[in-house]
Amino acid sequence: MTEIPKTHPRYLSLRTREMLVEGVEAGITSKAGLIAHGRGEAFDYILGEETIPPALKAERAAIHVLMEAEKPVISVNGNVAALVPSGIVEISNRFEAKLEVNLFHRTPERIGRIISILEEQGAEQVLGLEPDAKIKGLDHERGKCTKEGIFDSDVILVPLEDGDRAQALVDMGKKVITIDLNPLSRTSRTADITIVDNIVRAVPKLLDLSPSKSDFDNEDNLSEVLDHIFNRLKKLSQQKD
Ligand code: PTJ
Predict the structure, then answer these.
(1) Is the CB of 182 under 6 A from ligand 1?
(2) Residue 94 is assigned to a structural domain of this protein
(3) Whose CA is nearest to atom 6 of ligand 1?
(4) How many Å lie between the centroid of ligand 1 and the Cα of residue 34?
(5) Is the pLDDT of residue 5 over 80?
(6) Ligand 1: which residue has its CA nearest to atom 9?
(7) Residue 39 beta carbon below 6 angstroms from any ligand 1 atom
(8) Is residue 8 very low, low, confident or very high in pLDDT (cuts 50, 70, 90)?
(9) Which domain, by its residues, includes 171?
(10) Does the C-beta of 30 come closer than 6 Å to ligand 1?
(11) Residue 208 to residues 59, 90, 202, 211: CA-CA distances in angstroms?
(12) I want to staple 115 with a disulfide (CB 3.0 to 4.6 A). Which of 74, 108, 126, 195 is the partner?
C-alpha cells in the first residue's frame, strides 16, 4: 500500500482509495468497484465530506427499522468488504442480522475471499457461496441468493447497490435500506431508507446513534439532501477571497 503521510490534507480520502486498490489486488473488490467509488467521492466532495443532517435522520430511522426487523440481512459486496469489514460484522452482531455476500460481478472465488475476510473479523456464518434461491426479476447470475438469507429476509441493508437489484428487492416486499452517496441514483430513489453518507462514516454512526421512531419519508429526506447541497453550493459560489 502506498504510504500516505497523516499530515496530507486529504489523508482520509486517499487512505480510503488505497483500501479499495488493495481490495482489487487481493481479489475482493471488482475493478468496477473503483469506478463506483470515484463517483461516490465526487458526491462526497459536494456534501463537504461530512454526515449531513438528513443523513443523520436516515441513519436513526435505519437503526429503528433494523431493531424491529424479524429477519434482517446485510448484503455485502466487494467495496463494503474492502472498506468496512469489521464494522459490518459489528452491525450484524448488534442487530442479529445475517450476512450474505451478493455480488454484481459474481465469481465463486471472490465470494469465498469476501467470506474469509468477514470471518477473520469474527463473523460466525456468512451466506452466499451456495445460493439456493433467486431474487425475482433479475437475470440468472445477479439474482442468485440464499433462501435462508436474502430470499426470506424482511429487512435488507444493501450498501452501494445497483438500482435493478434494489428495485427487485422492493418488489419482493422487503424493506430496503441503502447507503449511497448519490442522492440521484436509482437505488437511492427506490429504497425505503437511503442514507446519503459515505459508508466509512455511516457504519460507525449505525453503531453509535440512538434510534428514531418518527415517521420517515424517503422522498422528503432526499429532497432535504438536495436542498442541503443546493444551499452549500450557493454559499460557496458567493464566497469571495
Ligand atoms: O462487488 P460487486 O461485484 O457487487 O460490485 C459492486 C459495485 C459497487 C461495483 C456495483 O454494485 C456497482 O456498479 O454499483 P454502482 O451502480 O456503481 O453504484 C454504487 C453507488 O455507490 C453509486 O451511486 C456511488 O455513488 C455509491 N458509492 C460509491 N462509493 C461509496 C458510495 N456510497 C457510499 N459510500 C461510498 N464509499
Answers:
(1) yes
(2) yes
(3) 33
(4) 9
(5) no
(6) 33
(7) yes
(8) confident
(9) 53-211+221-232
(10) yes
(11) 10, 11, 10, 10
(12) 126
144-153 mean pLDDT: 97
64 inside domain: yes
Whether 38 is covered by a domain: the verdict is: no
State the Cα–Cα distance between residues 193 and 91, nearest whole angstrom: 17
Number of DSSP helices (H) and strands (E) in the chain, helices first: 10, 8
Q: What CATH number does the domain containing 89 carry?
A: 3.40.50.12640
Q: What is the DSSP string of 133-158?
A: EE-TTS-TTTTEE-IIIIIT-SEEE-
211: which DSSP letter?
Answer: P
Ligand 1 contacts CB of residue 77 (under 6 A): yes
Question: How many structural domains does the chain have?
Answer: 1
Output the nine-digit C-alpha cell for 123: 463473523
What is the model's pLDDT at position 1? 62
In the structure grid, which three cell numbers stand for residue 112, read together?
A: 469465498
State the residue for C-alpha cell 486498490.
21
Q: Are 63 and 203 in contact (CB under 8 A)?
A: no
- Residue 81 resides in a domain: yes
Residue type, 12: L
Instruction: Look at residues 46, 62, 13, 61 and name the one whose alpha carbon lies nearest to residue 226.
Output: 46
> Which residue, judged by its Cα, is nearest atom 1 of ligand 1?
78
Dist. CA 192 → ligand 1 center (Å)? 18
The verdict on the CB of residue 232 being under 6 Å from ligand 1 is no
